[in-house]
Amino acid sequence: MKCRETNKLFTAYLDNEVTPEERKSVQSHLDSCPVCREELSALSLMRSKIKQTLGVAAENVAPSPRVWTELRQQFDTERRIPRKGGFKPMSSSLSGLRGLFSRQLVSKPLVFGAIAIILVVSLSLAIPSLFGKGDQVLASDIALSNPDVKAALNGQAPANIGMTDNIDSAGTTRVVLTMPPDRVIVAEVDMKKQAVTSVNVQLAADITMQQVIDIAQADPRVEKLLKAGYNIYYNNVEQYNVSLYSKEEITASLMEVGITNPQDFYGFMGAIMLKVNPGYDAYLVFVNESIGKVIGILANPFPDGTPPITVTAINTWELYH
Amino acid sequence: MAQWQLGDMSAFESLYRENEDQVFKTAYLMSGSKQEAEDICQEVFMSVWRSRETFDPARAKLTTWLHRITFNACLNNNHRKGTADINLEGLDFPEPANRQPEEIMVTKYEYEKLLGTLASMDKKHRSVLVLRYFNDLHYSEIADVLNIPLGTVKSRLNQALGCLREQMAPEKAGA
User: Fold this and answer.
1) Averaged over B83-96, what is the pLDDT?
2) What is the pLDDT of residues A193-227, one digit of tens each?
3) Would A295 disulfide with which of A264, A318, B28, B96, CB 3.0-4.6 Å?
4) B window 8-37, beta carbon within 8 A of A
5) CB atoms within 10 A of CB A181
6) Taking the C-alpha atoms of A193, A196, A198 and A200 in order, what is their torsion angle to the nearest 10 degrees?
7) ipTM here
8) pLDDT reported for residue A193
9) Poorest-confidence range of A178-187, B59-68, B155-164?
């Protein structure tokens, strides 16, 4: 065996990971090659040093108690939101709200420390719930028995059925049927006539940032913020992308910043940031595109000084109850 | 099925307590940041909880399964952080007085230099080094955790150690 071939086996040799034949060959070569003996000795020393370095580096670090505390909170949340049959956890990471967004908007960290208060302007809709469980079941039954909805379903069962938690002044509610991987069927149901008045199919590919912005701008609270000098903050429309996240991920992520009402999380969702420029104040506006409304506005969501996030969207298949 | 797999939260907490240190330290060595390591640790145990029913002790050891989830999280970590740079912040090199004489092998200079080289190394090579020389896994276990052939484990370890040796060579070390 030549020096080069022998050298390739040195790491495995030192780690006792060579076959008996390889070990014999290496030893035989070493007996007659002082250069390789020296090389092996140097490699052995390096191996010991990296072992020691890794051991020392990790010696004095330990996770803070918050890791378990937050995990428990998330588990408790999930227990309140039982899994649907057939739901499979996504392989993507549970990375918190910040992970749902790319962080390219602001290069310099904004100092939220001075503000350091999480002010939840609205965690849920300020509309009184006129909609009992029975109404929800009824609306869902009306939608599912409609021929147009059946045609849109094309023989498939929806992964989730969600709906607005109220009937508007015209007596209409919306039933949202999620059809992975890329469709949401929205049926408007006239609860007085107990009939479907329209059926729309939303495709992930068709969603634009402008839709999110339009829905947000129509909200009186957002309008007020815009009048007060806040700007809608995003890089460009191309930044907008639809990604697939699991119900647990979205729920946990939004809970991380204080939005705790998972009933609103279904269909397609988006978010924009309102910010005074220059300034440190920021608001995150969460929009459910499938039902065309703002589901929550959060002020100063990152009081720990973390740079705010850029605008993107969340596709919340699986999000319903 | 173990109790934790059946959804027993106190059993799951025991599992967490037994393994949090190892998962966290591994994530720390891979990410270089305590904050990131905590996030990864949380992500790992969330994945463990969610996929608890899929774990089959007849097919894999719990530690191997945990390593696999941990490294998946570490290797997928870039999309979240937006940078692959390792930053082993605030590391204290124990002074010789606080260490056993037989332990004193790597100097503070070498330690910092080695960490710097480790930080600049790509995650594929860093992974095999951490799994072998920190987690003490056999090559076949590393192959299983990273889902790569045994030969790739060997070549990556060779390359990684070679890279460290090159960086620590006397002319580069300035000695």
Assistant:
1) 49
2) 888 999 988 877 776 767 778 888 888 888 888 88
3) A264
4) 9, 13, 16, 20-21, 24-26, 28-29, 34, 37
5) 9
6) 150
7) 0.88
8) 83
9) A178-187
A314 φψ region: left (φ > 0), alpha (ψ -120 to 50), beta (else): beta
The number of domains in chain B is 1
Q: How far is B79 from chain A (nearest CA, A)?
A: 8
- Which positions of chain A have pLDDT values less than 70? 1, 77-137, 159-160, 163-170, 180-181, 207, 209, 233-267, 275-282, 299-321
Min Cα–Cα distance to chain A from B50, Å: 7
Structure tokens, A202 = 């939303």
- Which of the residues A5, A13, A14, A71 would you substitute to probe the B interface, choosing the one with the greatest number of B C-beta atoms within 10 Å? A71
Residues of B in contact with A68 (CB under 8 A): 13, 16, 20
Q: Which domain range does residue B14 map to?
A: 3-173
CATH code for position B58: 1.10.10.10
Contacts with A176 (C-beta within 8 Å, 6 or more apart), sequence order: A160, A161, A162, A163, A184, A185, A186, A266, A267, A290, A291, A320
What is the overall mean pLDDT for chain A?
A: 66
Nearest one of A285, A254, A216 to A98, comparing CA atoms: A254
